[in-house]
Design brief:
By secondary structure, this protein is of the alpha+beta class. The protein is built from four helices and three strands. It starts with 5 loop residues before the first strand and ends with a helix.
Length: about 100
């Protein structure tokens, strides 16, 4: 039996924002974003998009929980995560930063 993998990912969008999502096929999902697959999706208009971060999970519930967590983060905190500055993450928490 094939083991499932789930991914939380962050895209850098053409309008200099970040989009966070979850998928079970990172390559396919990245391609869909690049092609503007869904006209109603946030990433359709701020093209182009670039995959800048991903995490792999064994269980979908863990991936969804992480996605929800990351969506609440400030742009600066996401940038610190993307740049692998985990020591700076507490500095950029919204409550402390605002």
């Amino acid at each position: 039996m094939k083991e499932h993998r789930y991914y939380v990912y962050i895209l850098h969008c053409g309008d200099n924002t970040y989009y966070t999502g979850v998928t079970n096929d990172l390559v396919r999902r990245e391609s869909e974003h690049l092609e503007g697959y869904n006209e109603k999706a946030y990433t359709h208009n701020p093209q182009p998009t670039t995959l800048v971060y991903s995490e792999e999970f064994k269980y979908i519930d863990k991936a969804i929980a992480r996605e929800k967590q990351l969506k609440k983060w400030s742009q600066k905190k996401k940038r610190a995560l993307i740049d692998n500055y985990s020591d700076r993450l507490p500095v950029f928490s919204k409550k402390k930063f605002e």
